[in-house]
Amino acid sequence: MTLRPNSVSGIMLTVVLALLPGTVLHAWQFGPVVWLQAGWCILLALLMETLCLHLRREDIRHGLGDMSWLVCGCLMARALPLLSPLWLIALATLVALGLVKHGSGGLGKNRLNPVMAGLGVVAVCFYQLQYPAPGFQAPWTLQLDIPTILQQQLQLVPRLQLDALSSATPLAHERLDAPAPLLSWSGYLAGGLLLALLRVSRLEIPLAMMCSSVLLCMAAGHNLQESLHSLTLGGYMFAAFFIATDPVTSPDCKVGRILFGLTIGVITELVREFGLYADGLCFAVLAANMLVPQLNQLARKFNPPGQGWQPTRE
Amino acid sequence: MTSTIPARITQQLPFAISQLPLLRQLFNSVQQRGHWRGGVRLRGHKQLSNHTPIRSLPLAGQELAIPLSHGRSSAQPCVQVGQRVCKGEVIGDGPAGTVWAHASTSGVVTAIKECCPADGDQRQAAVYIAADGLDEWAPACRPTTVLTPASLAAFAMQMGLVGLGGAGFPTGLKLQGASPDTLLINGAECEPFLTCDDRLMRERAGEIVAAAALLASVFAIGRVRIGIEPNKPQAIAALWQAAVGSDCHIEVLTLPLRYPAGGQPLLIKSLTGRTLAPGKLPAEVGVMVLNVATVYALGRAVLHGRPLVSRIVTISGAVAQPGNVEAPIGLPVASVLAAAQAQGDGSVHIGGPMMGRKLADARAVISKTTSGLLVQAEAFLPAAQASRPCIRCNRCVDACPMSLRPLHLLAACQQQDRPALQQEQLGACIECGACSHVCPSKLPLRDSFRQAKRTIWLGVRS
Predict the structure, then answer these.
(1) What ipTM does this complex have?
(2) What is the value of pTM for the model shown?
(3) Same domain as B419, residue B339
(4) CA–CA gap between residue A253 and residue B253 (Å, rounded)
């Protein structure tokens, strides 16, 4: 157990490390845009954190030392759609760090997951600006080279048209049930299990999330294979292991965490089945975040402090 | 034959599950009798000081300052300056309920003034004795009447016996009016670095067992159990051997190797399966808990007529001669360090790293509860780091042996919210420091709880 990180910065760096396998797989399929976007996100997160610490008159070196900005940047890079323009990334970072995290008093005080709040604002306000992915399975940005990506991110040239993209890449619209060509979910799964082994995060939330999603998906008339396949789509694994497990915005005990995971899974599945937005996970996590105090209250009934040490009645 | 296979599987499955750390974490609410959850695994550092036998120190030319008070009881000096006293002679006495003080070596009383005990908060009145180096014993003082629980309790007070495990609670008060069915002897020594109880059990197992048998017969106790952490195999073996040779039925049991296995509620849970609810005394659940060194001292007092004038002190860390010394009460810490040839000029830590404290005053003296000295503590203990905000990682919840939620307790402490503190059961906290140890944000959890118990708790009540 000596590998277990025992400081806040150690925990944060472990999370970043655990994100690597998924990110590498993602970048392998989607091209250099993944790394460029991660670079921008981390840079902007660093700047925003410094600015917020300065405005709050905190010790900047001590504040940056917790490395939470690095985790926020890395998570934001994966959560935002690829090829997001720079100002959109900046806006999401402003919401995440400026409003949600430092606005509620800094590290550990926020009730909402900062990354999901940033993504949620961007998704609701600028829905038209986002690129809807042409197909679930198409690594459509792989062909783009770095100058083109930079031009797109900095918006120096007109936005790429979807048609141009679709014709440039072989799409596989009709082959949804073919073996999934997108593999990054397995990287995130591996990273999440690594975090659980190092006792940085706990498995209750992802397991409960996946169980409820699969069951609800099957109740909606899909078969088991399709239901399991839906877990690999749209960053589900990423959100399950890296977003929902954020200890700050999840409940404090096991019963609460299981209920929390179930809530996220159910809302995700409902949004995916009936919703307008593609970002079911984002809204599910935010909704479940709001329920955390109630879940904690409920869980305390099952698990009062000092349990097992009550006076025994003879 | 086929019917045996499912039975075997069902028997072994829980065991197999309990061996998988990940699953065990998930299902850790499954509890057996005598099991307690939480606690932390600590590196013992016992090998630094447990190889050499207990040594004694030359005392000629030393000036000892023997504190007169223990907790709330304080003895009145009954010697004059200039008077010659022998080792074991009463130098401070008082009415019933007072722990008497005894000269810890022979010599001349030089002053009666304040001194600073190594592990105390305040300065205390003390008798200063210039040792003559003869170490001459006063006549043995044996109990005058037939031993009954009451007379043994009174005798323990007169022999200056206090709990040597750390809290220093007068042993006589513990024995008073108790009618336990089980005697538990605490040889856990779960604090890292300390080996004083380990060496004592290895070298003086016979005396410990004799004292335990005596206690058992006086109190008519049928069951005597000694709990030891499994990292002290020689001590366990020595006590086994002694227990086999004894008439009294004494069981030597191992405790879980988790700090704080020696904490009173946890020891009682491990050894008897009984639950000591917060605020209750061990006597209320029918047990008597004594530290192994206290039992030894009680045996010395009753069987040999020798009062408590010395204790075993572990010297560990950056010293040329680490190990355990039998230090007379009142010996200056500086002379103990000089005898062990302490190196470096770093700070000295008193007691173990979890419950102990930094040596505040260089002129401090060994008291009855000084269990160890860690020299050059900076090199062995994690450096104090600036604390960060709580990230609610829940590690403190997992570590708390009393199933409390330190993170919520801390929030309530910071807001001075008394109802919330009560709801979160601050009173159940045993101040073991496991939460502070595991906190990645280095929050001063234990210190806040200790503070809150003293100020918010008592302040509002008075």
Answers:
(1) 0.84
(2) 0.85
(3) no
(4) 33
